[in-house]
């Protein structure tokens, strides 16, 4: 089985300039994802999709293939995952005749994700033949029933979700334990069948399976404080050894 891991790394990060190759605990950020992908029991190939020559050099240094530079037209802020994934699949087919059986997107901004997490994602797709894709999730730290929007006149807060949706009186004032369970897509491990990308033009498909990841391995680096959190957790992991597989408590299911 050919399992291709694609690590997307644009050069034009706005929130944290050059974040994909910024040092985290002694290594460029992108290195953590490359190394864990290469430790996977199932991943047979790791490719970095980037538009940036410096990022390409760093990725290659840590063991990823960089067979192309991503075109500028699919490397902007509004470029979609489907675009760069389709580009990679088409490039490999046209240049090598290579077609993977399973495709992964491993964002370098999730450096705490482990090879074990990657393997669980792949196994979840393998065990669910009707699933088009798999995503890692964890319980949402902020419940949408307790979120707000600002009124058009800019003076007041209004519930983000109206009562017509929640069927509850003032859920934002009640205990969290009374609210329905809500989960978020971590973005750390996304697994697809190539047909989901090429034929459905989607990264979720019609049937989206899932697996659990703990919050401490799901940190996504978007802002400066995320770097600090990731560094703290990475240092803690180094002192404790590798994390075991995550089994969600009954209360989350």
UniProtKB/TrEMBL annotation:
Organism from which the protein derives: candidate division WWE3 bacterium
Name recorded for this polypeptide: Acylneuraminate cytidylyltransferase family protein
Signal peptide range in chain numbering: none
A single MF term (Gene Ontology): N-acylneuraminate cytidylyltransferase activity
Keywords (A to Z) from UniProt: Nucleotidyltransferase, Transferase
InterPro entries the record matches: CMP-NeuNAc_synthase (IPR050793), Cytidylyl_trans (IPR003329), Nucleotide-diphossugar_trans (IPR029044)
Keyword Cell membrane: no
Ranges annotated as spanning the membrane: none
């Amino acid at each position: 089985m050919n399992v291709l891991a694609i690590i997307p790394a644009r050069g034009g990060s706005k929130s944290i300039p050059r974040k994909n190759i910024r040092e985290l605990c002694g290594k460029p950020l992108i290195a953590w994802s490359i190394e864990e992908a290469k430790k996977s029991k199932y991943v047979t190939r790791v490719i970095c999709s980037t538009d940036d020559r410096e990022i390409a050099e760093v990725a290659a240094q840590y063991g990823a293939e960089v067979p192309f530079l991503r075109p500028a037209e699919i490397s902007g802020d509004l470029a979609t995952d489907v675009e760069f994934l389709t580009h990679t699949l088409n490039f490999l087919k046209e240049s090598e005749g290579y077609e993977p059986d399973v495709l992964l997107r491993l964002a370098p901004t999730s450096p705490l994700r482990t090879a074990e997490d990657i393997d669980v994602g792949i196994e979840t797709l393998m065990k669910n033949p009707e699933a088009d894709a798999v995503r890692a999730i964890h319980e949402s730290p902020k419940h949408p029933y307790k979120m707000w929007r600002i009124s058009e006149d800019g003076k007041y807060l209004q519930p983000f979700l109206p009562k017509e949706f929640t069927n509850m009186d003032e859920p934002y004032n009640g205990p969290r334990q009374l609210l329905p369970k809500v989960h978020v897509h971590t973005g750390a491990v996304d697994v697809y069948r190539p047909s989901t990308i090429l034929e459905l033009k989607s990264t979720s498909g019609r049937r989206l399976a899932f697996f659990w990841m703990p919050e401490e391995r799901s940190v996504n680096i978007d802002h400066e404080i995320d770097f600090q959190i990731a560094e703290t957790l990475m240092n803690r992991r180094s002192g404790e050894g590798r994390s075991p597989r995550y089994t969600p408590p009954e209360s989350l299911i």
